[in-house]
Write a structure and sequence with these properties.
The protein is an alpha/beta fold and 290 residues long. The chain has one domain: Aldolase class I (TIM Barrel, Alpha-Beta Barrel). Helices cover 47% and strands 13% of the residues. It is built from twelve helices and ten strands. The strands form three sheets. It has a five-stranded parallel β-sheet with strand order 5-6-7-8-9. It has a three-stranded parallel β-sheet with strand order 4-1-10. Helix 7 links the parallel strand 8 and strand 9. The longest helix has 17 residues. It is globular.
Length: 290
């Protein structure tokens, strides 16, 4: 249902508040450059420090600006099942096309707990849902057998697989087949994951090079493997540079350098260190972005 290069879009702030104009401009730029879908309120969107009111507004504004031109998949996950249900209900009410649901973080549920968490959301909200597995940030890995149990729910349509394991993505694709769309959760693994059955990526790098990420995925999906590999290698320095520090610190800094947003972050995230900022600037200059 959801394929291609989708963007895990940043949430721009100005003076502590959502910068609605900059956010709208980012969305327009993304759509003009071939991005396949907009994913607001994810980790890259600093969802952890948005109030519920802000979270709702970001989703509503995204739906409004996109105006059905591409899918909107609203981040609505939480470490509280009840809160995830509430946020997902709002996403549906706001007109989002789907929801992205991160695995519960910090409380480290068992595999049975993960299954029951997602089952509860799927049964509570009739909206296409994408699971999001990123153990490096949540402290829990959702294993392929749990994903296989969940793909039996009609409205659980995909997974953003960010474990860093191509083997894990391969097992999910092999086990679930067409019932579960696998999307890379790590830009550097987009190409390898598509080689084992993935259908695209929910991308951080698309924030700064939307056209190139879209071309990479499209080239692979239409069978132009050499072209996809060429783009992958060309973008590889950016894949590294955007994770010199915790995401989304580098990507917001990069967008600031490119004049797209005010690179304001919310504590506990803070400005990049001088050394890594200089390294990021060199990578952007080498890529012709600044």
């Amino acid at each position: 249902m959801f394929t291609g290069a989708l963007i895990a879009i940043v949430t721009p702030f100005r003076n502590g508040k959502l910068d609605e104009r900059a956010f709208g401009d980012l969305i327009e730029w993304q759509i003009a450059n071939g991005t396949s879908g907009i994913v607001p309120c994810g980790t890259t969107g600093e969802s952890a420090t948005l109030t519920h009111q802000e979270h709702h507004r970001v989703v509503e504004l995204t739906v409004e600006v996109v105006n059905r031109r591409v899918p909107v998949i609203a981040g609505s996950g939480s470490n509280s099942t009840a809160e995830a249900v509430s946020l997902t209900k709002h996403a549906k009410q706001a007109g989002a096309d789907g929801a992205l649901l991160i695995t519960p973080y910090y409380n480290k549920p068992t595999q049975e707990g993960l299954y029951r968490h997602y089952k509860a959301i799927a049964e509570a909200v009739d909206l296409p849902q994408i699971l999001y597995n990123i153990p490096g940030r949540t402290g829990v890995n959702m294993v392929p057998s749990t994903v296989a149990r969940l793909c039996g729910f009609q409205n659980i349509v995909g997974i953003k697989e960010g474990s860093g394991s191509v083997q894990q993505a391969s097992e999910i694709a092999s086990t679930c087949g067409d019932r579960m769309t696998v999307l890379a959760g790590d830009d550097a693994l987009t190409l390898p994951m598509m080689a084992v059955g993935g259908k695209g990526v929910i991308s951080v790098t698309s924030n700064i090079v939307p056209s190139e990420m879209a071309q990479l995925v499209k080239a692979f999906l239409v069978g132009h493997i050499d072209e996809a590999r060429r783009i992958h290698f060309a973008l590889s320095p950016l894949f590294t540079a955007l994770f010199y520090e915790t995401n989304p610190i580098p990507v917001k800094t990069a967008l600031g350098m490119m004049g797209k947003i005010d690179p304001e972050l919310r504590l506990p995230l803070c400005a990049m260190a001088t050394e890594t900022k200089s390294q990021l600037a060199r990578a952007l200059k080498d890529a012709g972005l600044v």
